[in-house]
Write a structure and sequence with these properties.
By secondary structure, the chain is of the alpha/beta class. Helices cover 18% and strands 40% of the residues. The radius of gyration is 14 Å and the shape is globular.
């Protein structure tokens, strides 16, 4: 899978056969997934979970679990955490509505291998400083399930 950030800040998860666009919802081709429910489009499985104020999404793509929070971290019920299972990659917002502390609490509860912070550049830079892990600034993340190392957390800041 290849993960990039477009010039407008939108994240794209791309495989050989399909791509998922992460904006305020999840879009796969012409299909917009906006809200709770279970979806399977073009070989990409998506589950929308109800959040405090907005839904968040679990996307299974090329055997990897990506959890996406569109605008701010959400508190999750124990049931939602259990349904999420193991999280490989988390795309989390860091902006006016999402403090670094809120985002770090969410990340620590999910324990993903890779964290991709999104939002206003200054907020992402502040998050990167406080994250406590090495930060990688790259244009494109190319990743496979076999490349994920247990007990290792990487912070990836995508450049557009």
């Amino acid at each position: 899978m290849q993960i990039t950030k477009q010039s407008n800040g939108i994240i794209e998860l791309k495989t050989k056969n399909a791509s998922a666009i992460l904006d305020k919802s999840v879009r796969i081709g012409d299909v917009v997934l906006n809200g709770p429910g279970e979806y399977d489009v073009a070989g990409i499985a998506v589950v929308g979970f109800p959040g405090d104020e907005q839904p968040f999404y679990s996307i299974v793509i090329e055997e990897m679990s990506v959890v996406y929070f569109p605008e701010k971290p959400q508190r999750m019920s124990d049931k939602s955490k259990e349904e999420l299972g193991s999280v490989d990659i988390s795309v989390v917002p860091v902006n006016e509505g999402a403090t670094v502390a809120d985002t770090m609490a969410l990340i620590n509860s999910l324990e993903p291998n890779i964290v991709i912070p999104i939002g206003v550049s200054a907020s992402v830079e502040e998050f990167a400083k406080q994250a406590g892990s090495a930060v990688e600034n790259i244009d494109t993340l190319k990743i496979t399930k076999s490349m994920l190392l247990p007990d290792e957390r990487r912070i990836i800041v995508l450049q557009s």
